[in-house]
Amino acid sequence: MINIRKLESDLWESADLLRAGSKLTSNQYCMPVLGLIFLRYAYSRYKMVEREILQGRPSRGGRVMPVEASDFAAKSALYLPKEAQYDYLLNLPEDISAAGLVNKDGHSMTSLGEVVNNAMQLIEDQREQLVGVLPNSYTDFSDEILSDLLRIFNNAALDEIGGDIIGRIYEYFLNKFAKNIASDDGVFFTPKSLVKMIVNIIEPTGGVLLDPACGSGGMFIQSGDFVNATGMNATSTMTFYGQEKVEYNAQLCLMNMAVHGLTVLIKSGDQANTFYYDAHNLAGCCDYVMANPPFNVDKVKAESCESAKRLPFGMPSINKHKEVGNANYLWISYFYSYLNETGRAGFVMASSATDSQGKDKTIRESLVKTGHVDAMVSVGNNFFYTKSLPCSLWFFDKGKAAPIKDKVLFIDARNYYTVVDRTLNEWTDWQLKNLNAIVWLYRGEVDKYAALLNEYHAALGSDKAFAEQVHELSEKAKVLRVEAKKAVEAAEKREKRKTQEAYDAKIAEITETLTIAKEANRLYEKFGDGVYADVPGLCKIASLSEIEEKGWSLTPGAYVGVAPVEDDGLDFEERMAEIHKELLSLQAESNDLMDTISQNLKEMGL
Questions:
Q1: Pick from 245, 194, 193, 203: which is nearest to 223 by CA?
Q2: Count of structural domains within the chain
Q3: Are residues 361 and 437 in the same domain?
Q4: Chain-centre distance of CA 547, in angstroms?
């Protein structure tokens, strides 16, 4: 698995050295750097689609027909003219002025900055929604710095990471570069696994999708991937609408969508503040609504909200200053109001909103009584990239099937995740599928559950019982570790490292397969061949009367109870070795930090 955090750190460290050596401020440097990341990622996707187009391509006179812009349009992909391709920019001669290059308007170019500006303009010509969006200030950079930046971002790891890569790296750079730009309370990037969970549950297939707090467009990207994976074309079946108050984020969203061959109708700036404006006039019109809105926003003008309508359950509490002190239930009401008669919504919300009191509780009661609350999922700490707070995922469905019309599925997933590092957790694809499987069974979609079991068997390459496979793979891993230890000890000194690496690769392969087997077994133990059952500590289907008894709480933990204590199956020695390794890493990090502090103090003469 690609270590994206290390990638970000490496990219930042290299780019920041250059920023420190330039005369540009962080704000001047930020967007152009993101533009180069955009160029690199666009080129990666361009080459991927080009390979698809060239497969089985007809030839004339023994020569394969060259690809054209129309070929990429047919695949909903962004076409890059030669002069806008990353490799072209990377391999230009050192002396641009002597290369005889001309821009799209036929004027001579004498600097690398002019060449990169021209590349951006050529891309804007390919996609109308990008006109005036891409950075065009590259002549502010010296050729030397720009050349170094192009080299830094020519990182093969960018080819291997899907999803909202620009958004993820954008936030990292933005937080590092200019925290004042990203200082709005409650505003932070949505992690990929949460976005995937939302998309998987609302299952967009066609129609109008709105994200009224769209940021860098991660919800749109994942929805497009979901639709395309079903064999349909997201560009022709979906219409994406976005609102984004921060214009920087809206620019990034447009760039991100273009890279993925998607089109979005986006409004940005003050007139796109969703609290006060329905910028696209979509109330009651959306098939899908997805969002990760800012949590716990205060000082929202109550009169402006009331005049903007979209409040089917009334206003939340208003203070003496005629302000909404916490806007969570404004967002919740808006999301509901955007849906058409069969629409679905999925969104991230502060955990406190599931049980807040006062007017919030009154609104929540009215909402639950509609029968349109579909599912609630509790998410643990450390899922967000820059925040450690827990959250909940809310799902509405105005077209629920009759058997579950007056029921709500509660899932408590706070203890179900994979640790990426000490400050970040996520759901793996298999964990996402397991959580999704609970929703399928709640909806009576047993065929999808059965297909997942078959997918597990295919991935494991065996039809044996999952529990049996877990046991066999665990034993193999133990034997291999013992074998590795002996082999390394027996190896000559110069061969020890090579021997260890060879065994590490084998152990990693078995461990990965074992992880899949454990997830399969975890699912099968609870639901067998496809019979939904409430599982203590994990999931419960509650009726409206049960929710009323709980004071209209929508907190999953209030319904699912506590899971019985299970043997976690961890090998004590193995876990202690992992902890020791992590401790050594932390000590090294601490030593590096102390060295940096000491050096800074010396430079300050202290």
A1: 203
A2: 4
A3: yes
A4: 32
